Amino acid sequence: MTGTNLLPGQASLPTPNSTNSFWHSQPSKILLGHRTTETLPTEADLVIVGSGLSGTSAAHFVREDEVGKNIKVVMLEAREACWGATGRNGGHCQPFIYGNPPDVGAFEMRNYQHLKSFIATNNIPCDWRTLSVAHAYMDLSMFQHSLSIFEDLSKENPSYSDLVSVITPESTNPSLADLRIPTAAGAFLQKHAASVWPYKLVSWMLEKLLEGNGKREAKFNLQTNTAVTHLQKAADGSWIVHTPRGMIATKKVLLTTNAYTSHLLPEFRDLIVPVRGEMSSLIPPPTMQPGNDENPPFEYSYGFIGNGKQNRHQDDYLIQRPYSKDVSSGGELMFGGGRSYAAKAGLGVSDDSSIDLPAAEYLRKEITVIVDIKSQEKELKATYEWSGIMGYSRDDRPWVGELTEELGLGGGKGLFVCAGFTGHGMPNTCLSGKAAVDLMLGRTGEEVDLPDSYRLSKERVVKARALDEVHIVDAKG
Question: Which residues, in sequence order, are bridge partners of residue 455?
């Protein structure tokens, strides 16, 4: 049970007034202020806390499952639907193939392929663009370190060389200049990435879930602007979910609360730490348009590692939005990062009601030099600048599963979590949400598609707490 007085390191509730994200510039008329029923239901089979991609995916997979399709689901969101991390991210979906253990890289690839297929099959209007991603290392020692890891992984998994190309200053076709990162020490060019409008993806999924409700009964009930203040274990083993609008009794609860998990479970405050990141939507130089071979739009998405005083945990990331057919709109450069320029690098901050001004300035200026966009100006103009709260996991892996008493994390039977994506949710959340659903429906072992390192166990908790805390790891780089 959580009260109003926060412990050191404990996340707050999401702030009522958040910075304006570009991704919210075209909000769903159906979802804004949506409450499926005027009053809060008093009972449910399952309460999902959070309406981002993990929670929405979980709700989708419940409804698609033969066993779970008749479960009554209530989704509670503290603010508007998809107003947290998913609606504030960089618009990337890129599995980290060469930088992860093989089972994790393969899982991220399955997430990517699932999303790509799901969006194409349903013709979801969310600006999905299949791309390759260039991970540009601006620091030579960091590049050499990653190259050594990649070479070792490639010996064990020769197929990696079909997915990832190493680009050095001596490379041609493509060269670093061809990739428009001429000042990089080296790069990895990875197939299977994408840019996407994340809010539009999630809002489409939520609208479809609402459309599936019958006239007499809502099996999926979305309640926005309804914060969960604490959880209570009832004597009969069920859960009571407390909100300012009332209480819901439920058999099971799924927390898809990411950075805010420790607000409801203070025992998580050293395992999932809120970290504020900075994003911007920048107007490209006027010459950067389709048809201009001298300065065309980007063909790739980008990650930048080791730029300036930033370490490998404080990367920058960039996509370019597609232009409209008449080139009168679109083309925004969606540039995020600059975390080392923020106070305390954003660590421990769960308030997204303001931006970090030094980080925002860094993004407006650095984009003119870190990539070749032939800008005549030393600083681009921003149409939107916003912040978002990421949930950094102490052992760098999401936490997915049932919070049984033996874990000592303040949970109990029937309480599940899917959180802690460390700023890397897009290639993880969908199938992590599915895994959480499978576990809730009683499936075990290989029936559940989830890396072992994501699963909850007492041993994992002990091992994670033996590692350096998140702020120490972040400072070390």
Answer: 400
